[in-house]
Design a protein that fits this description.
The protein folds into 2 domains: 137 residues, 3-Layer(aba) Sandwich (Rossmann fold); 68 residues. The chain is built from 8 helices and 6 strands. Helix 1 runs antiparallel to helix 4 and helix 3 packs across helix 4.
Length: 217
């Protein structure tokens, strides 16, 4: 198929996902850091996963807190939580990441997570040298506008690697949509958290492991 690069999502593809309760606690703590004592469970959920900048702005305005400040506390608390999960073994590489060693095309990471988290996790697990670029988020409210399913981060990674026809590997529908918008093929990799998931957007490849991804190259 002539792929000249391999781009991969981070969480759910390279390393396991963090548990939802710990992420919710981090989001709740972020409200407290911003001086908001009793957010509702719905408000905590709104800044935990799949966050939209309009929700952060709405919450900040409702509580008289600068939305940028609220979001900075959120990203700081999430970073703290994921670093702890990495070091105590709850956030660890999937066994099949070993398949990426020796892959000839250049490799890169494209993630909606924060850059500081992705680089910390990769470094802790000795995986940083596998990847020539990491494209992820800054801990700012504006960064939410560049998240997948927008193709911006994919385009940035392609430019970093100097490639035009990479294969992208993801574990969510937003990954599939982002790849389509970027004009590249996408492999949807099945993990325990998405093994039975149905997709409205069809991936180019539907695979069971990173070994199968490497075979596609």
């Amino acid at each position: 198929m002539g792929y000249d690069g391999l781009l991969l999502d981070h969480d759910g593809v390279i390393v396991t996902l963090a548990d939802r309760p710990s992420l919710r606690r981090a989001a709740s703590d972020a409200f407290a850091d911003a001086g908001i004592a009793e957010p509702t469970p719905e408000e905590v959920a709104a800044i935990t996963i799949g966050v939209d900048a309009t929700d952060v702005t709405r919450l900040g305005d409702a509580y008289g807190v600068d939305p940028e400040t609220l979001w900075r506390h959120r990203d700081d608390r999430i970073a703290e939580t994921l670093r702890a999960a990495t070091r105590d073994g709850r956030k660890r590489p999937y066994d099949d990441v070993s398949a990426l060693a020796g892959v000839e095309p250049p490799l890169g990471i494209v993630s909606n997570n924060q850059t500081r988290i992705v680089t910390d996790v990769l470094g802790h697990h000795g995986l940083a040298d596998l990847f020539e670029t990491v494209r992820a988020r800054a801990p700012t409210l504006a960064s939410l506008g560049r998240k997948k399913p927008e193709p911006d981060l994919l385009h940035d990674a392609m430019a970093d690697l100097g490639v035009e026809a990479p294969l992208y590997v993801g574990d969510s529908e937003s990954d599939v949509v982002a790849a389509r918008r970027a004009g590249v093929d996408v492999a949807f990799v099945r993990r325990p958290h998405n093994a039975d998931r149905s997709l409205a957007a069809e991936p180019t490849h539907d695979v069971e492991s990173l070994h199968a991804v490497v075979d596609l190259l």
